[in-house]
Amino acid sequence: MKKLLSTDHFSVDGTLIEAWASMKSVKPKDGSGEPPAEGGGRNAEADFLGHKRSNDTHASTSDPDARLHRKGKGKETKLCFMGHGLVENRHGLLVDACLTLADGYAERVAALHMIEPRADRPQAITLGADKAYDAEDFVNELRSMRVTPHVAQNMSGRSSAIDGRTTRHSGYVLSQRIRKRIEEAFGWIKVVAGQHKTRFRGRDRVGWAFTFAPLPTIWCDCQSSWRRPADGQGSRLCQAFAGRWRIVEMDVWDNGFLDLVEEAHLTFKGPADGEIAFGALKGFLDVRYGTRDGSACAEFSWEGHDDNDPACGRGWVVFGTAGRMVGHFYIHNADDSGFVCERA
User: Fold this and answer.
1) What is the full per-residue pLDDT of the chain (344 aa) written as tens digits?
2) Are 124 and 147 in contact (CB under 8 A)?
3) Half-sphere exposure of 162 (CA within 13 A, CB side)
4) Are the C-beta atoms of residues 339 and 330 closer than 8 Å to each other?
5) Alpha-carbon distance 327 to 249, whole Å?
6) DSSP state, 89?
7) Residue 102, φ and ψ in degrees, nearest 5
8) b/e map of 146-172 (b: 16 or more CB within 10 Å)?
9) Sign of dihedral through CA atoms 318, 284, 10, 212?
10) What whole-number distance in Å separates Cα of residue 72 and Cα of residue 78?
């Protein structure tokens, strides 16, 4: 296994794990909440309209460790924990994972905790991360450890802690491209290991389930049915997928929504690039071609915007019947859907 791992270049990210508790279980900590309606049973109706709730004043009676948290502006608030992963950049294998309470500082604190043991070496290492990690104190702490911060710049109405001293190097661009592979590991943890919504309560038990889940994930990634193409086969696979494909059907979204902004499509360009667009989402792909169960396959991670909010995720597509392609598309910390494409 060690031969598959890089010891110099890493990427980090966090993901929300929905708690095994409902929003109805969120009550004021001082016990001043309204009594349940009579005759409603144990699942009585509740009206939250106009009620302000925060982690300082409220807590879940089902799981006091769960925290109210939302992915971004305009997203719904949920009771969550926050899982964190560290992958090496050579093959995108998880080398560390942990779970914390969900708050605005958890991702950066967990990243420092996971990268510190690997920074104790004479040669500097790199750590790739998204815009959420672009904070001056975090960047300075990495540099004090001799870790080069390959963090995406956050220029939304503010100045970035990452400047041209870092971004001018080709390694920074490469780290930003490869770091999205961590979404593949999170996809496995949530879908295959069933951790999208945990079945446990309490930080210790939820943390145990989350950190145990990557073990079979790493093994399955090494032994999966996906195979790298043989010499010369990669260019043929690239040519087979190349071009624009129209997305004609998705499991979760109806056809009227698909062409909301522009014609829904999946486009493959060159040996590793592409684009996907449907509804109010548009993303740019990092693609690898190979075979899955004997069929030509394109797996990709993507980054872009969904209704003007930053978004990212992963997906895959294979050739089906009647000249069509079928696949599955995932949005990080949000929906996923099967889809069907036809050559445009």
Assistant:
1) 455 677 889 999 999 999 999 888 888 888 776 665 565 566 666 666 667 888 889 999 999 999 999 877 778 889 999 999 999 888 788 889 999 999 989 999 999 999 998 887 778 899 999 999 999 999 999 999 999 999 999 988 889 999 888 999 888 998 998 888 888 888 888 887 888 899 999 999 999 989 887 765 554 444 444 455 655 566 788 888 999 999 999 988 888 899 999 999 999 998 889 999 999 999 999 998 887 766 788 889 899 998 888 888 888 898 877 788 998 998 887 788 889 999 98
2) yes
3) 27
4) no
5) 11
6) T
7) -85, 110
8) ebbbbbbbbeeeeebbbeeebeeeeeb
9) negative
10) 12
Burial (CB < 10 A; 0-12, 13-18, 19+), residue 37, is: exposed
- DSSP, collapsed to helix, strand or coil, labels residue 183 as helix
Strands in 89-206 per DSSP E: 94-101, 125-129, 147-151
d(CA 318, CA 289): 10
User: CA-CA distance, 151 to 135, in Å (whole number)?
Assistant: 9
> E strands of 102-252, at which residues?
125-129, 147-151, 226-227, 243-250
Side-chain half-sphere of 99: how many Cα atoms within 13 Å? 27
- The first and second tokens of residue 274, run together, are 């592409």
Separation of alpha carbons 22 and 111, rounded Å: 29
| Residues forming a β-bridge with 265 | 246, 277
Residue 112 burial (C-beta neighbours within 10 Å; 0-12, 13-18, 19+): middle
- At residue 232, what is the residue type? G
Q: Is the pTM of this model over 0.90?
A: no
The conformation of residue 192, written as its DSSP 8-state character, comes to I
- Which structure tokens are listed for 112? 């420092």
Structure token pair of residue 133: 């990690």
Distance CA 183, CA 331 (A): 9
Given a contact cutoff of 8 angstroms between Cβ atoms, the answer to whether 284 and 265 are in contact is no
Nearest partner of 276 among 300, 309, 297, judged by Cα: 300
